[in-house]
Amino acid sequence: MPTPRETILAALHARLSALPATVLRGEVLPERVPAAGLLILRDGEPGEPEVTLSPLRYHYQHRAEIEAVVQGAARDTAFDTLCASVGSAIAADRTLGSLCDWVEAEAPRPVDLAVDGAASLKAAVIPVILHYSTADPLA
């Protein structure tokens, strides 16, 4: 049986997979970026939990990351559309079907990356904070 952490990350991946962009989880950047853009979900860091006793609960603010990448002549518009679609997907269900207490994305920090012999890339990391609690940090 998967842990709450894995269940939440899988639900976030499934929510992002409904977008027109290609969505990967934990993969390396492929050689070609699809026309609709590319999203790569990184598991990130759960951080130090706050602990409550009676009953024992570990409260996490898990920081996952979504790498958003577009390529092509209209990359500024495509990038804006891709980031907005990620925001809309998260806002549509901030509890991922009641799996976590709250999901919140932070603003991306875009960069332009030159590629030899091809159109440059526009990319950013979008931090996503997953608030959830569990009875065991390993389960």
Q: Keywords, please?
A:
about 140 residues; alpha+beta; seven-stranded mixed sheet
Please explain how this structure is put together:
- With 139 residues, this protein is α+β, with helices and mostly antiparallel strands.
- It is 23% helix and 37% strand.
- It has two helices and seven strands, in the order αββββαβββ.
- Strands 1, 2, 3, 4, 5, 6 and 7 form a seven-stranded mixed sheet that branches.
- It is elongated and about 60 Å long.
- The relative contact order is 0.23.
Short description:
The protein contains 2 helices and 7 strands.
Category from helices, strands and their pairing:
alpha+beta
Instruction: Tell me the major beta sheet.
Output: 7 strands, mixed
Number of strands: 7
The radius of gyration is 16 Å
Count of helical regions: 2
Strand content: 35-45%
Q: What is the N-to-C order of secondary-structure elements (H for helix, E for strand)?
A: HEEEEHEEE
Morphology call: elongated
Q: Report the span from N to C terminus.
A: 9 Å
Identify low-pLDDT runs: none
